[in-house]
Amino acid sequence: MPKVIFDTDPGVDDAMALLFLHRHPEIDLVGITTVFGNAAVETTTRNALFLKSAFKIDAPVVRGAGVTFDRDRPARPWPTIVHGENGLGDIDIPNDADLPIGEEDEAAQFIIDTIRQNPGEISIVAVGRMTNLANALAKAPDIAGLVRDVVIMGGSFYVPGNVTPAAEANIAGDPEAADRVMTAPWKVAVIGLDVTTKTVMTRATLKELADKGGPEVSLLNELSQSYIDFYDHLIADAMLVHDTCACVYLVRPDLFDTVTGQIRVSCDGLTDGQTVLKPSHRRFPPGAWDHFPAQTVAVDVAADRVMALVHDTLVRR
Prior knowledge:
- Residues 4-307 form the Inosine/uridine-preferring nucleoside hydrolase domain.
- This is Nucleoside hydrolase.
- GO terms for molecular function: purine nucleosidase activity.
- By secondary structure, the chain is an alpha/beta fold.
- It has one domain: Ribonucleoside hydrolase-like (Inosine-uridine Nucleoside N-ribohydrolase, Chain A, Alpha-Beta Complex).
- The protein has twelve helices and eleven strands.
- The strands form two sheets. Strands 3-2-1-4-5-6-11-9-10 form a nine-stranded mixed beta sheet, with helices on both faces. Strands 7-8 form a two-stranded antiparallel ribbon.
- The protein is globular.
């Protein structure tokens, strides 16, 4: 059973992923680390603490990075049109959710300590900017040889991005961090828009799950409504299940078609934030991908089977 650190920026789809991790019987959630992204890190940490309480999760919440790995990189505006001003669909969050959010940037040390204390046992599921992971690697490169694996929701390889034609939001939010993570000597699986855009949760289905899954899924249903409205330009009355898709890969990688190869991230210009794969089966002249480890990229998915697993897991008590 993998021990999981969930690196997150809640975030509507982050909330569903967190509940999936909590309720799946083959996952031991040992920590929740927060990062800026869908909102400022103060807000994403407050949201993680609120969800921890609402979902009855024991794992600690540890506040992470509030700025990019390259501190000179200009910050992107918060995606309020997607996740709302408060990051959770602008639902009313009780006043008692204003819990102490800890010191900034403690997450990197928590990741280091937890991996060192559990060599070979920790899986990191990262569904926001890769800043905490890059900071941890910079402080303690040895953790790359001690971690079980890293599963990332981010990037796009054979489909367009979602913040520019070239770039997906999590990667575009901190490209230097993403490049550091993709090229580190640890085992990475990248679950990007190539597959997450095929995993769909309809409004009607989420309501049915809320009726079966107790107050936790009812909360999930409530905070997802404006997110579903946002996706109306792509799919009618439904949302894409980005972050939960990465959690499914952790326990059922057989539901994904994958390729391997070295990955680099463009860090400037027109393609800033683009993830570029050098496939293992292709030969190229010497270049910027050389001497880095091959990683795994999901390129297709058994979407119906993934969503069936999501449904079954969310309604577990």
